[in-house]
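Review form for a predicted model. The reviewer records the input and the model, then writes brief findings.
Reviewer: anonymous (R2)
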Amino acid sequence: MQVKAMPLSGPMPVQAAAQSRGIILDQYGRPLRLSRVRPMRRAHGSYDAARDSNQLANVWAQATGASGDVVASPGVRAKLRNRAAYELRNNCYLRAQVDTRAMYVVGRCPRLQLDTNEFGGSEEYDRTKERSWQDWADEVRLGEKLKLAEILETQDGEVFLAMVVNQRLRSPVKLDLIVVEAARVSGQVDKLRRRHYYDGIEYDELGNPLNYDILDEHPGGSNSITTYQGLALGSYTSKPADEIIHRFRPLRAQRRGVSEIQPALPLGAQLRRLTLAVLTAAENVAAFSWIVYSDHPGAEPVTIDPLDVIDLEYGSGLTMPAGWKMQQMQAQQPAATYREFKREILNEMGRCLYEPANIALGDSSGYNYSSGRLDHQAFFKWIECAQYQLGLDCTTVYARWNDFYQFTPGALVWNKWRPGATEPHTWHFDGIEHVDPYKEAVAQQVRLASLTTNLSREWARQGLSAEQGLRRLARDYDLVRELKLSAPAGATNGEGSIQAAGWLMADRVAEAVAEQVDPAAIAEALAAMNSR
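Model under review:
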């Protein structure tokens, strides 16, 4: 018997036959069973907001991955500025909301307090220079300009403060501050091809601004200015960056600001539309508008054209043809829900300004004391953050003012002065008055007695420094003693009376200030009112 050797290379005949039919055999010649491999599903469905359903596709149809500068292009920002300015001119509520926030942030004017005693200065130096600064600030109306800058920053999204020389000032320091609207800082054609240039601002490689191109006139002025792709072109002046303060609150890594009230602009338009609709409905009823109709138009021929208008004389009657009736127009608009809808819209508009509902509405009728305090906490926290940033801008202005001041006649020169330097200082803003002064006074005493606060912080709540407040107290009570004013009748009688406690506190505080006692003694004097 002869055995035919199988070839070592290549598939065996059985395997070859199986492979030709798409069957894979194992080493024993049996068909190999393979588990079914299911295709892997796409993993984008793990987020509901990432699904492209019919309901959500239109909601985010305008969503884009463009950068902040591309989204806020010059043309888009110009359109938003114009619409925001229009809304601010015609919407009473929005105008009051923006003005109120500016008053909270700026107040009358930030006040400077120097403290150079530990750095080679003196009290005389601090008080003299503070008076010089305040005189200059009053002449240039610094507080008014800062409030205008805050309003423009909210309306346009950004504002520029230019520090210039004004020889017409009476102050020996000839520095002045000019508020420049965002529309005047615009890109110029001759610089558009520069690599680090964006909409009127030239930057270095690290993104630091170098120069600002400011148009000599506003684009919306009487003289015509050419526009090109949203850019206002005309004669301009390039200002170095150290003479310009650019104020804006970015939401992304962007170089120009967008109007802060732009989310509220559509809401303001909707509110006006509803107001006009409700007003029209009310006018229709008040004006006795009516229609004439007939249930049997073929009963008798009448010479009345369809949709014809009939004038009715005031105080007169009117006879109707046979089969014809008169019916007054009815107001079908939801006038009853107008108040609720209006409150919701205004509350939503105020949220982009971080204002609670009673400030946005100018109405606290639905509030109690606790809810009012709770709603204001977030708003006041935002005010503190905004005042901190405003203090940094004021420090920039003070540093430039200080450079001018050092060379004025009779100036007190700090021995550590150098160009652009400032002494140790603090900016004080107007305090926020408490709704219930008595409760706040009691809480203040408890905080001072438990050492959970200090006099500097408590005086800062009123917009003053502790040193200024205590010295004013001492001066006032010294004047009382000088004029030999006595305590009112009943103040020394009647143990535990409010008058007696008040005069006892006044005497102890005045003595503590005069003797420069430790602040703990002053806190003890303030707590004496409760003990009496």
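Findings: The chain is about 40% helix and 10% strand.
Further findings: Confidence is low (pLDDT under 50) at residues 1-11, 491-496.
Recommendation: see findings above.
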